[in-house]
Amino acid sequence: MYIQFSDLDLEARVWVYQANRALTKEETGVLTETLKSALDTWEAHGKPLTASGKVFEHRFVVIGVDERDELPSGCSIDKSVHWLQQIGSQLNVDFFDRSLAYLDHNNEVQTIPVPKIKQAVTDETITSSTIIFDNQIATKAQWMNRWKTPASKSWMARYFTEQPSV
């Protein structure tokens, strides 16, 4: 059963998928309607899932499910991945490319290839206070509080640890 994203419980499990390019307004509309339709009939072992999906920043798809009602199964999670693969194919966008990190630079989403992060930190293109999108969050509460976070408080923290002087 589809519900509005704002109505999802704070402890709802979420998955964040990142598009490898910005989505147009029209593509965002198509994706939103496709998600609503798919999530409205999403189920696990024949039982409906209370779920929502929303596109943020024309770049990120966040799917959430309220596990208090019913737990998603491996098959139901696979089904949601299939939806995004299918719509991604139609829109010529990849939601599964994990080779890019996403930064919020003056309220604009920018990407950097993961192998170039260390050099960007050395060059101070990325600092400990650079806001990044941490797509490794697992609940709606984490999404609300930590999705946009300083690099030093994310998985990038390892790039800012003090190195012993030689």
List keywords for this structure.
166 residues; alpha+beta; 2 domains; two-stranded antiparallel sheet
Describe the structure.
The protein has helices spanning 25-40, 74-91, 117-122, 140-146; strands at 13-18, 43-44, 47-48, 51-56, 60-65, 100-105, 108-113, 131-133, 148-150. It is an alpha+beta fold and 166 residues long. The protein folds into two domains: 5-91; 100-135 and 144-154, no CATH class. It has a three-stranded antiparallel sheet, covered by helices on one side. Strands 2-3 form a two-stranded antiparallel ribbon. Strands 6-7 form a two-stranded antiparallel ribbon. A hairpin with a 2-residue loop joins strand 6 (100-105) and strand 7. It is globular.
Q: Count all strands and give the number.
A: 9
Q: Could you tell me the mean pLDDT?
A: 93
Give the fraction of residues assigned to helices.
25-40%
Q: Looking at the structure, what is the overall shape?
A: globular
Number of domains: 2
Largest sheet: 3 strands, antiparallel
Q: How are the strands of the largest sheet arranged?
A: 1-5-4
N-to-C CA distance: 59 Å
Low-confidence stretches at least 5 residues in length (pLDDT < 50)?
Answer: none
Q: What is the radius of gyration computed over CA atoms, rounded to a whole number of angstroms? A: 17 Å
Order of helices and strands: EHEEEEHEEHEHE
Question: Structural class of the helices, strands and pairings?
Answer: alpha+beta
